[in-house]
Give the backbone structure.
Amino acid sequence: MLLKKLIFTLIFAVIFSFSVYSADEPQLSAECAVLINAETLEVIFKKNANKSHSMASTTKIMTALLALESGRLGETVTARNLVTEGTSIGLKDGYKLSLEVLTWGMLLESGNDAAKLTADFLAGSEENFALLMNEKAGEIGMTSTNFVTASGLDSREHYSTAYDMALLGAYAVKNPLFREICSAKSKTVRFIKPDISLTFYNHNRLLSSCEGVFGIKTGFTKKSGRCLVSACLRQGVTLVAVTLNAGDDWNDHKKLYDYGYDKTVTESACLRLPESIKVYGGNKNTLAITADEERTVYSYSGEKGEIRQKLYLKEFLYAPIKKGEIVGKAVIIRNGKEIAETDITAAHDISAAEPVSTPTLWERIYNRIIDIFR
């Protein structure tokens, strides 16, 4: 009887432990996955996050980003010698459209023809454009990535990791127009030649099925499997999720966000500012300062690390100074990383001191004579 009770207790403990683990750690279909905080780049969840893998059309995040940063969105692009496979927006030789329309076609319809034409237009060839892609990847910190194609079509030397693609996603959504495009469910655009209008549709189901999701890009090839980079905003915090080779990517991302926001804690740092700063040449000798502490909000999902502040302030200022004028900056640092910042401003006006006039020679003589008779 005692043995039966012991066995039952052990079985119960194993089942209970498994259920707690399952509720805590999301069980995903993806071969590779990662979830990061878009602001701090803190890794909240990872599964083979640094494993090299092809990433299919999520590649177009980089292609679209370079197009947006080129400063040439309004220029006309003419389609020539377009030979592509897979998804397209129906471009034919001689078609004319703006670079911005090509960018919409890449991010919404995942047009391989749009990506190839963008590469040719901006760099002269896809090979040259890949150099720009890899240069930008280095700037972002994507150390385990190599781009070969602008569209994401399979190539042995075209690869990344879930973590690197999350860095790319977090960087890209800081661009306002990129964010607008990737979050749109549809967009009607106009070609220059032929003079036609087309409506592009976004194939990211999470835009309609997952609270807070506003992007970013889907992808699929037989080699890579289903790939997805998405971004979500809840509780004032943006998270970016990536899955590579997933059997059920939509649900994988829902699980990741539910897990991530359950783990995320949002706090506001309490700034320690000096009472005042010295002022020269003013009607007052000191200036009271203040800061918008609402902008020192930060979030974390792991163990709470050491929080400290760094103030950028001059030892003294010169009048005149207007109330609200920026006089410095406060930065919040957690575990060695800058996670939030806010401007330090003047709490009141300080006007320039009235100039002291110097008496003339005759005024000094006159004053001296008056003093003698007094």
About this structure: DSSP finds ten helices and 17 strands in the chain. The longest strand covers residues 225-234. Residues 276-346 form a domain with the Peptidoglycan synthesis regulatory factor (PBP3), Domain 2 fold (CATH 2.60.410.10).
